[in-house]
Amino acid sequence: MTEGIEEGRVTGWMKGQIPDLEAPMSFDLITGGHSNLTYRCRDISGKAFVLRRPPLGHVLESAHDMGREHKIIDALQGSKVPVPKTYGLCRDKSINGADFYLMGFVDGNVLNDSVSGLTIDASDRAALGEHVIHILCDLHAVDIDAVGLGDLGRKEAYLARQLNRWSKQWIASKTHEIPAMEASQQLLAERMPEQRGASIVHGDFRLGNMIVEGQRVKAILDWELCTLGDPLADVGYLLNNWVSPGEIDNEGEGDQSPTAVGGYPSREALCAIYEARTGRDLSMINYYRAFQHWRLAAIGQGVYKRYLVGAMGESREVDLDRQKEGVARRAEAALELLES
Q1: What is the CATH number of the domain that holds 196?
Q2: 158 and 121, same structural domain?
Q3: Is residue 156 a contact partner of residue 198, using CB atoms and an 8 Å limit?
Q4: Pairing with 175, which of 121, 131, 219, 339 sits 20 to 30 Å away (CA)?
Q5: What is the pTM assigned to this prediction?
Q6: pLDDT at 252
């Protein structure tokens, strides 16, 4: 048996969505932890699919809304944004104890760090980097209402809403003083730029959430933080994760970024492509980079506190000191960008 999967009932539901499925199925956990769980499902003929469900145990449903995530991926079918094929959403909790959805399995590499980054040939990296930023341009050009995502969330006042949300998260999960968090929060509120236009905002747009092969991105994954709002938030987030070779680890990323192996376009090159294609002004992009570091610090502090008090279960291990230090690094990186 696979933890988190009621194999018999899930297989029965899957056969209702995919009539030519050949049972029995095998289920293997691909990614787990405090985020949504991802399983690879195979039938005896070798056909492969992916099942996504919330984490095990007590979770906040609004933070792990499978219907919302499925809706986004389903809406992007046939668009210029590469996403896996969707096969259905199950809201009947008697099947598997929680909502889940099924999508196609996309084969390729996921570049989580500089070790996996070496799997991409040096001659392919520049083109892959350009494809990444072009996909972001395509995502931000999607007609929200035309694809049925106009009700995904409020389009306006994105930064104000995010600052409010994550400020509350920081207060609720605060366990120790990090002066750079409060200082950054104040500067972010004081210097908030006016939002110009609205788009889909992925919320976690980086190579580690993409399936790639050679010079191409085959699929964008992990839409759980997606909402509507200021597109420049995605650009700032991507740039924070776009680390150059030998870059000083003052951003909490260091050589963990796959781009640290070299051969990718520079941050400046990505910005030039984005500005040329979208017509958006990136002169205040350091604000958005600072905002994203601060937001991730607030998220990371929430994770740290949950592990600290044992809310994630005793079987789940995490380096608490490293997690704590990572929150501080993010906060300091945010403040440094705001003060530069």
Answers
A1: 3.90.1200.10
A2: yes
A3: yes
A4: 339
A5: 0.91
A6: 45
